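INFO  loader      accepted 1 record
INFO  loader      residues=67
INFO  predictor   begin
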Amino acid sequence: MNAFDDVRAAVDQAKHQLEAADSVAQNMARLLKGRLRHVYDTAALAALKHELRDFNIQTGRWKKLGE
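INFO  predictor   done
INFO  writer      dumping tokens
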């Protein structure tokens, strides 16, 4: 294997890990629904709220960067 094959393999592994993380996030969102009132970490809740400001519930889409 040469250096490019190593990089290609690392990128493929990173893509796989990101897809797995996205799947976990999808499942966690379903689990968290209705349970957030039991979270006492105000910094975590504030960060979630800040992140969700970029989501438009009417269109079901996220704002693009720079909007």
